[in-house]
């Protein structure tokens, strides 16, 4: 029997159920993967609550990314073999013992990663890549302001921003989160509760401001960000964990600034070539040891609600993984 976390009614993580199902037979062109670890993302929480843009038909299994071993290859499935260690990309369905997918949903697992790291890599770092490279056009020597730098995508942005040659200002809510951000390359650290970040950015940049703002928080954080930007700044809207912010168009005009929405997955669905370039770069950087997810919590599948609460309560530093043991 195969265990899977099932959403039968929308709401809090505690409403989800861990159920057992018989394995499904493969159709032509499909592959079976024994999942060893699944990564948690905030959209998983939103999807289970019915608050995400994608609203799967009930019942469904949450989980957008996983890593494991190929155990069966169906007829007409090409480019994959039994025993391959792979990353599995899904829109939902990863919180389970196994996944039945097509080869196009599989990516070779970096040899430098364990299963938990592989299962928490592509969504966060892919979002950061798309934001900073495809949308923000971050250049060496520019100042990058990363909000929520202790979170999964924020920490990925710190890593990639530093690798691209930017001066990285990381903001977070605790010394512990900032210490991890520093270890991943942040040049300057700002705690929200000890100094207003807009004043800190002005101090650090001698009044010039940030060239690129990476904002997965939104709300007042987004609004205050417009008051500490340089001429021609790009404000990257990643998410709204702190609420939806309002753009002050006069501030954008005065600074010649741009506000850019970031949807890494949708961008690839509309332009697959964009995703191929991104994937090759991320896998190369992983193999070279330049990028690695920080997995602060690894919990068994049965603790899925506790794991999701770590994201809701912002207690994770980097990423959280479910282990299928």
Structure explained in plain terms:
Pfam families: ADH_N, ADH_zinc_N. GO terms for molecular function: oxidoreductase activity. It comes from Bradyrhizobium forestalis. Residues 11-322 form the Enoyl reductase (ER) domain. With 325 residues, this protein is of the alpha/beta class. It has 2 domains: 2-120 and 293-323, Medium-chain alcohol dehydrogenases, catalytic domain (Quinone Oxidoreductase, Chain A, domain 1); 124-265, Rossmann fold (3-Layer(aba) Sandwich), CATH 3.40.50. The chain has 11 helices and 15 strands. It has helices at residues 42-49, 115-118, 122-135, 152-163, 175-183, 197-204, 219-225, 249-255, 264-270, 272-287, 304-312, and strands spanning 2-6, 17-21, 31-39, 65-73, 85-89, 98-101, 106-108, 143-146, 167-172, 188-191, 210-215, 229-237, 258-261, 295-300, 319-323. Strands 3, 4, 5, 6, 7, 14 and 15 form a 7-stranded mixed sheet that branches. A 6-stranded parallel sheet has the order 10-9-8-11-12-13, sandwiched between helices. A two-stranded antiparallel sheet has the order 1-2. The mean pLDDT is 96.
Question: Mind sketching the topology for me?
Answer:
Blueprint (H helix, E strand, L loop, with lengths): L1 E5 L10 E5 L9 E9 L2 H8 L15 E9 L11 E5 L8 E4 L4 E3 L6 H4 L3 H14 L7 E4 L5 H12 L3 E6 L2 H9 L4 E4 L5 H8 L5 E6 L3 H7 L3 E9 L11 H7 L2 E4 L2 H7 L1 H16 L7 E6 L3 H9 L6 E5 L2
Parallel strand pairs: 8-9, 8-11, 9-10, 11-12, 12-13, 14-15
Antiparallel strand pairs: 1-2, 3-4, 3-6, 3-15, 4-5, 5-7
